[in-house]
């Protein structure tokens, strides 16, 4: 797939997740076949106010594969200014993504995230402002939902506005904001978005296996999928999904030593970049995902919750091997 100046490899991208998709996590996913990865979201307004933490969320000194930064907001002028600041500050990115799907009250309460689904013309204005600030070379993507609630399934209208404004690709989470993350995922509504536009569309929501990815593409007609929580603790999911979407035999599941090596590498990189004090609380939730399917998983997850220093990771891995001999 070609998006402006970029050739996109594979059909599965890694979703942005606040507090989870940091640089160490993104690199791991890219190394296992993610078509592109996306930063944690940052506020366009905060960037224009000079907020260093927001800029830090977007910086990656060594991105692996194609890398997108994600901004949220509801003021087109400030969005354009924020993109200009990113360039002035030397923040490197291959794609820029606009968040129109976050359901968190602290985001929607300010009129951003999935609250934008209630105002399709504003969605179009946001995209136009981003495109004007980016120029013609950098691909622009939008992550959205199918609507606000059952009475406001505005996905197709928002999609048309985004396409007209200069978006190159849409990622559609198959739930309304009202649903938050509660099942089911409405593939029929994602299909309606796909049918409304001529640009590529990726399906998103509860894609946790190659079979689920193939089903999503088949039922929606989409051009690929975006995977979030399903890949945490299992970056090899991208290799299996890419193979399945290409009609190939998926590779074998990773061995236990491969899983533990990935866990250790990820937490080591987190500590290197953030410092042990900041990284280890975040590492606890990452480690828990690696315990999926293991014998003694409940006790091992409790051990994950006690991680406080990097050396504790090796103690945890020793416990994993003892439980799974």
Explain the overall architecture.
The protein is an alpha/beta fold. 46% of the residues lie in helices and 15% in strands. The protein is built from 14 helices and eleven strands. It has helices at 23-31, 44-48, 52-58, 76-88, 105-108, 120-134, 155-165, 187-196, 210-220, 237-245, 256-274, 276-289, 297-304, 311-323, and strands at residues 2-3, 6-7, 12-14, 36-38, 42-43, 66-72, 95-100, 140-147, 169-176, 201-204, 224-227. Strands 3, 4, 5, 6, 7, 8, 9, 10 and 11 form a nine-stranded parallel β-sheet that branches. It has a two-stranded antiparallel ribbon with strand order 1-2. Strand 6, helix 4 (76-88) and strand 7 form a beta-alpha-beta unit. Helix 1 runs antiparallel to helix 11 (256-274) and helix 9 crosses helix 10 (237-245). The mean pLDDT is 97.
Could you name the key traits of this structure?
325 residues; alpha/beta; nine-stranded parallel sheet; two-stranded antiparallel sheet
Instruction: Give the beta-strand count.
Output: 11
| Total of helices | 14
Q: What class, by secondary structure content?
A: alpha/beta
Radius of gyration of CA atoms, rounded to a whole number: 19 Å
Question: Order of SSEs, N→C?
Answer: EEEHEEHHEHEHHEHEHEHEHHHHH
What is the helix fraction of residues, given as a range?
Answer: 40-55%
**Uncertain ranges:** none
